[in-house]
């Protein structure tokens, strides 16, 4: 019976074999038509899965579902790529030249249109790459976004600069029009300061690269921005920035402070990391209980405890600010400055120096949109530098209204003064802005000696400073008298008044070193500077004072009260920082242009990388103004006007000083007398005290100066008096 059944089975198989072969053949051809050569990839994948099952390993980790989905998407991309090929190959009786190497599946993924299918495959490949390598995709995306943003900003700056130049060209007037020049305030109002302008010289007309755009209604021309240099700005890579952000979070966590870096603002010299404080959590241990309320026990019979959060509070700002030195150690940085909090934001700013400091040129700030907007409103627009986020920071000297600059030697103080003067000369004519410069060091401001903007030659002799400041104060009083006659409150209203017969220019007084002046004549210098700072704003007279010794005997309380806008470069101690800014922080600056800018409308200073102007740029700008034909005559008339003697000086030289009797009395009361004694007792400046000493010597009241600069009176006096 068994043999019969076996025979019947074998016979049935023999009879069914052709039918089964035909079914298998048709099924295989269907797979090939559907999958194409991608069938080999599926066979290999199934083989790998079978091998893992044979080794009794875990097949799927649901925690890595992104990776599995990414592999699947890339497999579909593989089928789509094969659909572009039609090889002369027969597989399983199917000619692939009539189908595709990717089969019907690849053709469906690619679509009917080859170009659209190509972009569809690129999109699928990017999606699979993001799922497989999310961190790398994030870094690449941030890098591309930063590059596009920087390119967009530069394009906007170029467009704004081009539009401004076209606007100035549009308002150009014919060159043959004669325009009367304004007169400067004098004791004799009929004496003009500026003669009528002569035509442009042959040397400057048509010379490329030197003349920018002529002013409407004037023969003066602006220097071109091509005279300034455009240095490339260095930028940190996204990898280095992310590593520093991670180090900051890890360093704070190691000291028990929870915080997250939520924003990064890279700048030319420092990068600001905006840190959001976390929470301080408080826990307590609680016994775990079952449904019946009994305590659960572990295998050793001990109760099982769990931690339960009972409260949480924000991390105090003081805990982060106290870790400045620890963060500097963790980041291997020379110093770290913490701004807590950042004004207007709920974050704490940690400013870390860049590994390579960038250079901020004057041209890179002048061509920005903020400066162009300010220049259209004010003739005293200043390009100060760039902030930690790389944004241009500008200021209006007319609103400051006076600027006090302090910093140690080599910190960038003199470069800042040169950039301020150059910026004003680039965008203002001598009819609009004039300068008076005091340079005791004799080497910083002498480069501007022969420009027509100078109302007086650069003052390098300390004995003449008091006289120059007195002349500025006289000019201020004369302008106030003119304002009162024209019923004008300030210089803007006076210049717009049709009753005014002249247009008054702004006057900027630049003093490079205040400490030297305070040593020569402290009383007279402080009194005159404070009087100018209190009253000169409305008359268009503004002070820019710098010092490298910001001590209380130089920057007195009265001077600070009248200089609300201040700039501090790197100083040697926190005491100096508190003297100039009323707070610490300047002692942690890096130098070389790194500064803190405190405007009048800000409660805290802003950290900037100051503008750098090279000697070559200064020489080119000064050379441009010197090439104008009428520049020499303009400068000569200005100097002649400012060199006029003060009221009453002629009478003093001819008939003697009114304080001569008081000086004679002091000479008879002291065994020794000096110029400084006359300054202190008579409350006069050094020049007048020196003239009194010369008159005493001429009259024979005092003898020749002895060693130490003191003179012994010839008249019988009180020798028991303490020397002055």
Explain this structure to me?
This protein has 724 residues and is of the alpha+beta class. Among the domains are: 24-132, no CATH class; 374-642, P-loop containing nucleotide triphosphate hydrolases (Rossmann fold); 651-713, Arc Repressor Mutant, subunit A (Orthogonal Bundle), CATH 1.10.10.10. The strands form 6 sheets. The protein has a 9-stranded mixed beta sheet with strand order 12-11-19-18-17-13-16-15-14. The chain has a 4-stranded antiparallel beta sheet with strand order 5-6-10-9. A two-stranded antiparallel ribbon has the order 1-2. The longest helix is centred in the N-terminal third of the chain and has 37 residues, at 134-170. It is elongated and about 165 Å long.
Could you give the topology of this structure?
Layout: H1 2-35, H2 38-54, H3 65-82, E1 90-91, E2 94-95, H4 103-110, H5 114-132, H6 134-170, E3 211-214, E4 221-223, H7 238-254, E5 259-266, E6 270-277, E7 279-287, E8 305-314, H8 317-321, H9 324-331, E9 337-339, E10 348-353, H10 362-366, H11 369-377, E11 381-387, E12 392-396, E13 403-406, H12 413-427, E14 433-438, H13 465-486, H14 491-496, E15 506-511, H15 514-520, H16 522-535, E16 541-547, H17 557-561, E17 565-568, H18 574-581, E18 594-598, E19 606-610, H19 615-626, H20 631-642, H21 649-655, H22 660-669, H23 675-682, H24 686-698, E20 702-705, E21 711-713
Parallel strand pairs: 13-16, 13-17, 14-15, 15-16
Antiparallel strand pairs: 1-2, 3-4, 5-6, 6-10, 7-8, 9-10, 11-12, 11-19, 17-18, 18-19, 20-21
Helix pairs in contact: 1-4, 3-4, 3-5, 5-6, 7-9, 13-16, 15-16, 23-24
């Amino acid at each position: 019976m068994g043999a019969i059944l076996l025979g019947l089975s074998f016979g049935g198989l023999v009879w069914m074999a052709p039918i089964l072969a035909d079914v298998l053949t048709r099924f295989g051809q269907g797979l090939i038509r559907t999958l194409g050569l991608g069938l080999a990839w599926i066979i290999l994948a199934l083989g790998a899965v079978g091998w893992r099952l044979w080794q009794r390993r875990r097949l799927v980790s649901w925690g890595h579902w992104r990776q599995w989905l990414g592999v699947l998407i890339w497999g579909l991309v593989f089928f789509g790529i094969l659909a572009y090929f039609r090889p002369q190959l027969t597989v399983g009786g199917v000619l692939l030249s009539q189908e595709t190497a990717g089969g019907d599946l690849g053709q469906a993924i690619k679509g009917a249109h080859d170009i659209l299918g190509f972009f569809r495959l690129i999109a699928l490949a990017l999606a699979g790459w993001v799922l497989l390598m999310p961190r790398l995709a994030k870094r690449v995306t941030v890098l591309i976004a930063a590059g596009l943003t920087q390119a967009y900003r530069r394009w906007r700056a170029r467009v704004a600069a081009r539009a401004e130049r076209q606007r100035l060209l549009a308002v150009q007037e014919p060159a043959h029009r004669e325009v009367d020049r304004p007169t400067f305030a004098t004791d004799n109002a009929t004496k003009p300061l500026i003669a009528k302008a002569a035509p442009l010289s042959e040397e400057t007309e048509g010379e490329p690269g030197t003349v920018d755009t002529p002013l409407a209604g004037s023969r003066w021309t602006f220097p071109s921005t091509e005279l300034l240099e455009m240095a490339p700005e260095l930028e940190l890579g996204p990898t280095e920035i992310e590593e520093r952000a991670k180090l900051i979070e890890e360093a704070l966590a190691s000291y028990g402070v929870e915080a997250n870096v939520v924003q990064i603002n890279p700048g030319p010299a420092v990068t600001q990391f905006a840190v959001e404080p976390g929470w301080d959590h408080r826990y307590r241990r609680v016994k775990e209980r079952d449904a019946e309320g009994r305590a659960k026990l572990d295998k050793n019979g001990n109760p099982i405890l769990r931690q339960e959060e009972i409260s949480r509070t924000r991390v105090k700002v003081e805990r982060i600010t106290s870790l400045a030195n620890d963060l500097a150690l963790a980041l291997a940085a020379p110093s770290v400055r913490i701004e807590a909090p950042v004004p207007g934001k709920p974050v704490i700013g940690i400013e870390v120096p860049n590994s390579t400091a960038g250079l901020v040129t004057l041209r890179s700030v002048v061509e920005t949109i903020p400066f162009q907007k300010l220049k259209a409103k004010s003739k005293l627009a200043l390009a100060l530098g760039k902030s930690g986020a790389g944004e241009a920071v500008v200021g209006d000297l007319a609103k400051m209204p006076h600027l006090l600059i302090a910093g140690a030697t080599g910190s960038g103080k003199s470069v800042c003064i040169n950039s301020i003067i150059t910026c004003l000369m680039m965008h203002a004519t001598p009819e609009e802005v004039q300068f008076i410069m005091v340079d005791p060091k004799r080497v910083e401001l002498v480069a501007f000696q022969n420009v027509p903007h100078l109302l007086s030659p650069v003052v390098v002799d300390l004995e003449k400073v008091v006289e120059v400041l007195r002349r500025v104060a006289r000019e201020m009083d004369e302008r106030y008298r003119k304002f009162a006659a024209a019923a004008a409150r300030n210089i803007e209203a006076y210049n717009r008044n049709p009753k005014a017969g002249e247009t008054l220019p702004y006057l900027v007084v630049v003093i490079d070193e205040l400490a030297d002046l305070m040593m020569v004549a402290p009383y007279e210098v402080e009194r005159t500077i404070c009087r100018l700072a209190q009253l000169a704003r409305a008359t268009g007279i503004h002070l820019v004072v710098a010092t490298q010794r910001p001590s209380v005997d130089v920057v007195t309380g009265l001077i600070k009260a009248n200089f609300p806008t201040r700039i501090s470069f790197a100083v040697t101690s926190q005491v100096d920082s508190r003297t100039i800014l009323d707070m610490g922080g300047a002692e942690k600056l890096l130098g070389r242009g790194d500064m803190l800018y405190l405007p009048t409308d800000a409660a805290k200073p802003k950290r900037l990388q100051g503008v750098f102007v090279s000697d070559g740029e200064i020489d080119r700008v000064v050379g441009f103004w010197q090439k104008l034909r009428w520049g020499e005559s303009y400068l000569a008339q200005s100097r002649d006007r400012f060199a006029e003697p003060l009221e009453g000086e002629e009478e003093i030289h001819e008939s003697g000083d009114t304080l001569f009797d008081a000086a004679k009395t002091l000479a008879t009361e002291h065994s020794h007398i000096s110029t400084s004694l006359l300054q202190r007792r008579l409350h006069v400046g050094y020049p007048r005290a020196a003239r009194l000493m010369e008159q005493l010597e001429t009259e024979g009241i005092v003898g020749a100066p002895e060693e130490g600069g003191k003179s012994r009176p010839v008249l019988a006096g009180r020798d028991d008096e303490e020397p002055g």
